Amino acid sequence: MDSRDYGHLNRRTFLQVAGTAGAAAGLASAPGGRALAQAAEKPNAAEIIQGKSPEMIVYNAKLGVMGTPLNMLREHRFTPAEILYNRTHFPVDGVNKWVATTAPADRETVQNWTILVSGLVQRPKTLKVADLEQMDLVKRISVMQCAGNGRSYYWAKAKTPGSGWEHGGMGNLSWEGVLLKPLLKSLDLSPSDSVKFLTTNGKDVPPVKGGADMIKSVHLAFPQLDDAILAVRMNGKPIPTIHGGPVRLIIPGYYGNMCVKWVTDLMLMDEPTPSAIMQKTYRMPLMQVEPGKFTTQNLTRENSDPTYGFRIMSVVFAPLRGQTVKAGEVELKGVAWNDGVVPLTQVRISLDQGKSWQEAEVDNSDGPYAWYHWQKSVKLDPGDHEVWVCATDAWGRSQPLDGLTTWNPGGWSWHGVDRVGFKAA
Amino acid sequence: MERRSSLHLFVAALLFFAGSARGAGIQIPEGPGSNLVYAKCQTCHDLQYVADAKGLLPAQWKAVLASMNDYGLEISDQEKSTILNYLTTYLGPNPPPAKPEAQAASIDGKTVFQQSCATCHGADGQGQPGYFPPLAGNPDLFKDSLFPVLVVLNGISGPITVEGKSYNGSMPAFDHLSNTEIAAVINFIRDGWGNGSKASQMKPVAPELVAQQRNHALSPSEMHARRENMESK
Question: Which residue of A35, A160, A409 is in closest CB contact with B27?
Fold first, then answer.
């Protein structure tokens, strides 16, 4: 089964919904009347990254940052490359222009691509991607999600810098690659006993001299690392270049920024990298903080955690926000996920602002790191309605009823109960 | 055969640049310092980030600017305070109503250069190896009287070779500058750093010339074609 059934929404509704999303995206970027006229001239996603759908919501053309409209995202069990969100950290129009395509790397690039495995080891080694492709590949079905996904919902409390993602900064993907830990072991590196972190760097380079590189460190002891792979395939094909091909570190259950694209260096280290992209951004404060009193400059190793695993989350895919559905039997649908360490145990929906809850049916046939698909049929009278959805896992972790309680200066890791207003007629 | 292969090259070049993004054309409210934001911030990202962050509190804007330092932004203390003043005033929680900006009394090419060009091309026009070509001694300034105007109005991205060295940075359009500012800065560059002897053989750029070119936007591929044409002259 490659697409989900949302057949009760007719094509006209889709177009209306898509139109609304487009208009909202245009408005969000328009600071004044003059800019509104300019918004029409913004390049579309297909002009920025070859092979992307022009329907994508562009958040930064120069950086190639784009999200997926929900009416498109929900149609696929595995999110196709053409509509998968993208976050790259350096301009896709200069030295890094080679990444701006969904096409895979050509044969010659793959043949010449090597990964240096080094760090606190006695015997550094070089891996060839062409060799990886010949090894035993394992499959990981996992959500890929930007740590900023949902950021715009925080703006109801206070603005944060960064792209105004709604829920389209994610996708559900099937990756294939070589299991990381056994691979490292097989290289006979003789690592120091002090090794605790894996630091990964990719081939992308900052657009100016002295700029912080996109380099990330993860704890080797965390459980998802046992499932991590050096991936060479996405959705059954060589990884699209924009999504990290020919080789990307996939740590299932981890936010996208930790799954380094275009891997060229793997380092076994005793400390995480000092790079600003590790130490000063993509971090969640450990306590509740207030706008203006605590800024991204106040984030430290002591008072914050890197955005490693996903916070538990659920999203409504049907009805879509603002949609009108036929009164009577209404099918509510959507997805839920967590960091994969323990399974989700329950997805509940509420139609009365959280006063009472009903359990939804859940399909988790794609495994612990994938979207769990939930659905619930309800009888609705004509009028305005609002559905809330909340997931819980086996460790009792759940979503805050008010997502604004985790407001943080970078706008990371939104995981509030999704609240979707719609009409029945 | 030779003709055919050069056609191939031409087609390949067109295909390569066909996918290049146009300038995002994001505008920010005009105010003291807005030109500096256009000049400094678009090397790494377009201004949608800046426009979308409208409403940040002063402490947050200060933090944003500090973090940009980590990502490679190089500005003087004075530029930093001008930018911060602009962001907190015009893109803060209580921006003033938009009003037309009073024209500056006199426009001086050196000031425009320092504000808009020096970050990438260097205070002495020396450029940055691999990223941004030098302006000191750059023959592109003198082959075609119009070309520098087109570069400022349209930007240029994708690999170019200047005096045997290759550069692959990306210059945004600087079309937020006025015709007078663009004319002044090109005349300043054409006169500076030993360029002067060649400049004396060319007519100075007049604001009217800039105005004529403003409404004919060129795509990155058209800019490269124009440059190639000029090289072969």
Answer: A35
